[in-house]
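Sample intake sheet
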Amino acid sequence: QNPNAKLIRRAELHIQTEEFDQSRQALNQLVDSCGGYFETASLYGGGYRDAYADRWGEYTVRVPAEKYDQFLSSAGDLGYITSKNENSEDVGERYYDTEARLKTQRTKQERLLALLEKAESMEDIISLENALSDVEYQIEQYSSELNRYDALISFATFNVYLNEVSRVTQDVGDTAALGQRMAAGFHSSVQGLGQGFQNFLIWMSYNFFLVVVLAAVAAVAVFVGRRELKKLRKQDDNNSGEK
């Protein structure tokens, strides 16, 4: 590895979990163990109006660069990683260029201050103070840029997307044997049937009174329909007898 490299390391992780609360707690513990922190953390779903909806969290995590591999290797304990993307950016050239520019501006500042001490006319003083103001602005800009680079280099960034699912989906892949793919498909079908039945029961619990009302209306409609049908048949029989 280039000793002069200035690497900014980032990774994006999409994770499925059947135990959302436990995974969130595990993520907090992992961040703490790596000496990192949450830059942002957002939680969605499972609100008052839809308490049983799946939840998902979006987190931007910063960990010390030397803990990058530790965090990445331990992320699998949070759930099933459905996708992982990593990238590294070497900003060494821009960093050292900015550093050189900052050094030049500070040298210029020292010279202007020395000239200002010797200046006698008001015109020279004003001119030097204006030049100093411009130099100080450039120093502030270059310093801020270096500080931003230092923060990104010293702490790696992880974007973690944690999704709650009723069951983790693990695709066996197109290269798997036919028997494995058929078994996985059958297993998925059974799980889907069971989940569908659970969803139906949950829907029934939320719409119980609606179902009762609809069933009562349907029963009344059938009763009335049968009574009217009997009347029509009786009338037909009477008409046939008169003939």
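Comment: The beta strands are 7-17, 37-44, 56-64, 80-90, 155-164. Residues 10 and 157 are 5 Å apart (CA to CA).
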